[in-house]
Amino acid sequence: MSFVHLHNHTQYSLFDGISTPKSIIAKAKELGQPAVALTDNSALFGYPAFSKLCKKEGIKPIFGMYAYIAARGRLDKEKMLDRRSTAMLLYATNQQGYQNMMMLSSLSYTEGFYYRPRLDYEIVAKHSEGLVAAFGASSRLGQYLKEGDVLAAEKWVAQMDEIFTRQRYYVEITRYSDMDQDQRRLSDQLLQFAQDHDLQILATNATRFTSKEDHSALNVLTALRDQTIIDAPNHFSYSQDAYMKSTEEMQELFSDVPEAIENSIKIADMCDVDIEWNLDCLPKFDCPDSLNDEQYLRKLCYQGIEKRYGFDLVLEEVQKTEMPNFIGKDLKMPETDYPVLLAKTDMLDEKQKEIIARLEFELQTVTWMGFDAYFLIVWDFIDYAKQQGIMVGPGRGSAAGSIVAYSLEITDLDPLKYDLLFERFLNPDRISMPDIDIDFADTRRTDVVKYVTQKYGSENVAQVVTYGTMAARGAMRDVGRALGIELSRVDFMAKLIPGKPGTKLKEAFEVEEFKTKYDKDEEMKLLVDTALKLE
Question: Are the CB atoms for 179 and 189 separated by under 8 Å?
Answer without folding.
Answer: no
